[in-house]
Amino acid sequence: MPFRPGTSGNPLGRPVGIKSKRTLLVEQLFEGDALAVGKKALKMALAGNEVCIKLILDRVAPVPRGRRVRFALPQVSSTGDLVAVVNSILKAASVAEISIDEAAALADVVESGVRIIEVTELAERIALLEAKL
Fold it and tell me: Do residues 85 and 50 share a domain?
């Protein structure tokens, strides 16, 4: 039985706005020391500690997600056009014009297009066969 909108599945659970024990513990650990910990992490990063470098960069300059990707793709109107499209995506990824994740997402879009084309072509073939009967 689904819950009604606005009704909690656990009405006796933690009230809204109350911090969990874990959050309170973390806040107590860093109370007053957060600046010192940050300075130490920065010092270690500047000394070449790769883990600290990654940690700081991930927080300060995270990898943008969902950015606009602009590069030329051939038009797809049949399954025969797909090789050129996939090659364009691979080339863009190989020269770092797009990331591997973006290339994978584009390949998923191409795969969806393939399915649409295949269904359309099958529907046309069925219509032709039915017309002959």
Answer: no
Residue 73: inside a domain? no
Instruction: Please work out, in degrees rounded to the nearest 5, the angle formed at the alpha carbon of residue 21 by the alpha carbons of 16 and 27.
Output: 100
- Distant-in-sequence, close-in-space partners of 92: CB < 8 Å, separation ≥ 6: 71, 98, 103
Note whether 110 and 86 are within 8 A (CB): yes
Model confidence over 64-100: pLDDT tens digits?
777 777 777 888 777 788 888 999 999 999 998 888 9
Q: How many residues does the chain have?
A: 133
Question: Could you tell me if 42 and 86 lie in one domain?
Answer: no
pTM of the predicted protein model: 0.45
Q: Give residue 33's domain range.
A: 21-60
CA distance 111 to 105: 10
